[in-house]
Amino acid sequence: MAGKTKRKYNGELMKFNKSIKSPLNKIQKILPYDYNRNDILNFFKEFYPYQWKSIEERYKYYSEKDNFLIKNGKKRRYYPKEPKIYFFNLAKVKNMLSKGEKEQHKKNYNNDIREEALLNFRVQRNNKIKIKDEKIIKSKENMQEVDPLFIDIFINGYHQKGITTEGKIEILKELEKYDSPKSLEFFYKINDSEKNSQVRKMAFNHLQKIGKYVKLRKNFKGKQKSYMTEKSDFFMKPKDLYERIVSNALQDKKEFDYFISHSAKDHKLIQNIQKSFNKINCTVYCDWTSDNDFLKREYANEYTVLVLKRRIEQSKNVVFVQTINTTDEKNNLSSKWIELELEYAKELKKNIVAIDLLDNGYCNFEVLKYDIENNELII
């Protein structure tokens, strides 16, 4: 490993090791009388699952870097230790497993105090883990858990010569909507190598927000070129998206398996239905998740209509989610937007199906069965 790279790697490793020490100090206080290495590891996994996940992801991160070097005819550089090997080689863990430390633990051991400490610690840690879980779930609630059909086109577009900072941000914002192996790999690469500080920080923030192991790369040294400091607020409206579509830009290359025609009042339901389609490896279009950077409700206008029509054209099927919020007691559609979408889909002779949650016998389309309790499509 080259001197500079080695110093950076060792510095990062020292910081990472240090972040594990505090949790281990706390675990040491609740260990049983005659503990062993597995007790330490199991407690660490139980009470610090995100830290353990970071150890696993860090190993994967540096292993992939080494594999990339080998693939390109170069020598391995990092040699990361497998998670368990890394864990048991930590100085703190070795100290905890030393004969002297274990004897001291037995000497000071009081089972009643230990049981009470364990109970309190479990409550404390479970609360913190729950908060972390909820935060990540919230961050990912609108993300689709599938590779979009157009992901390769967008990734290739990012690396096109002459792309602007605004163009890069647009692609990042699009791929932020997908929780998939390809999109994660893309964000890690951008965090590692992108020289524009705004774009690189966006990649870092995205990975951190969804609970992934990531380290913030410092700004590149040397003379700062204009493209490295260029910024964009990326404030867009429906017209901006429509102009991108008609100019044959990346936005016109999108494809979807299903366009979801629905009521905005069914927000949570639509999130769940989106996930259920992802389970069967289908991508969906939903205006407030798929085009949320452009189709802001306060700016809805004729361009919104044109965009929605194009998205229907780009979708293989249309699914109408029929609820009390979409259809009145006389079976009339209660939204002009839904009416527009379904009429245009009929005009295009698209396959239209319905998830009928009214179940009143008045659905006008073939019904796609949906188990609302288990959030599963029955196909």
Overall structural class, as computed from helix and strand content, comes to alpha/beta
Mean pLDDT: 94
Query: What percent of residues are in strands?
Result: 5-15%
Helix tally? 17
SSE sequence, one letter per element: HHHHHHHHHHHHHEHEHHEHEEEE
- Count of distinct strands: 7
User: How does CATH name the architecture of the largest domain?
Assistant: 3-Layer(aba) Sandwich
The major β-sheet equals:
5 strands, parallel
Spatial order of strands in the largest sheet: 2-1-3-4-5
CATH topology of the largest domain: Rossmann fold
Query: Which overall shape is indicated by the principal axes computed on the Cα atoms?
Result: globular
Compute the CA-based radius of gyration.
26 Å
Terminal residue distance:
53 Å
Keywords:
single chain; 379 residues; alpha/beta; Rossmann fold; five-stranded parallel β-sheet; two-stranded antiparallel ribbon; 56% helix; 8% strand
How are the SSEs ordered, and which strands pair?
Elements: H1 3-28, H2 37-47, H3 49-71, H4 83-88, H5 91-96, H6 99-108, H7 111-140, H8 151-158, H9 165-175, H10 181-193, H11 197-209, H12 226-229, H13 238-246, E1 256-261, H14 267-279, E2 284-285, H15 287-290, H16 302-313, E3 315-322, H17 336-347, E4 351-356, E5 366-367, E6 369-371, E7 376-378
Parallel strand pairs: 1-2, 1-3, 3-4, 4-5
Antiparallel strand pairs: 6-7
Summarize the structure.
The chain has 17 helices and seven strands.
Describe this protein's structure.
With 379 residues, the protein is an alpha/beta fold. The protein has 3 domains: 3-140, no CATH class; 151-229, no CATH class; 238-378, Rossmann fold. The chain is 56% helix and 8% strand. The protein has helices at residues 3-28, 37-47, 49-71, 83-88, 91-96, 99-108, 111-140, 151-158, 165-175, 181-193, 197-209, 226-229, 238-246, 267-279, 287-290, 302-313, 336-347; strands at 256-261, 284-285, 315-322, 351-356, 366-367, 369-371, 376-378. The chain has a 5-stranded parallel β-sheet, sandwiched between helices. Strands 6-7 form a two-stranded antiparallel ribbon. The longest helix is centred in the first third of the chain and has 30 residues, at 111-140. The protein is globular, with a radius of gyration of 26 Å.
